[in-house]
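Could you help me review a protein record that somebody else here produced? What it holds is a sequence and that sequence's fold in C-alpha cell form. I need someone to confirm that the C-alpha cell line plausibly describes how this chain folds. Take the sequence as given and treat only the C-alpha cells as open to question. This is what I was given:
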Amino acid sequence: MGILLSCCGGGGGGGGGGSPSSNYNSMSSSVDPDTRRRQMAEAAEARLKAHEGRGLKNPEALKLRQKKIEELERKQAEEGLEAEGGLRPQKTDKGI
C-alpha cells in the first residue's frame, strides 16, 4: 500500500522523492509577484483569444463583420441626431 501512496504524493517512505505540492510551492515562491501577475495575465488573454474563435471556421471574418455593423450603427446614430426627423405622426380630422 505504501507504493500506491508514494506515487500519489501521499505518505510512504518509498521512491516518491517528496510530495508534488511542496515542489510546486517552492517553485512559485522563487518568482517575484509582479512577474507572476504578468504571466498570469498573459495566460488569461491567450485563453480568451483561443476561446473566441472556438467553433468558427473564420473568426477574422466575424470580427470584420462586427466592426462594419458597429460602424454602420454609429453612422446611423449620427445621422439621426443631425436630421432630427424621420417619421412624423399625421393628424387626421376624422370625427370618430
Remarks:
- The CA atoms of residues 5 and 11 lie 6 Å apart.
- Helices lie at 2-7, 20-29, 33-52, 59-83.
- The chain has a mean pLDDT of 75.
- The first helix runs from residue 2 to 7.
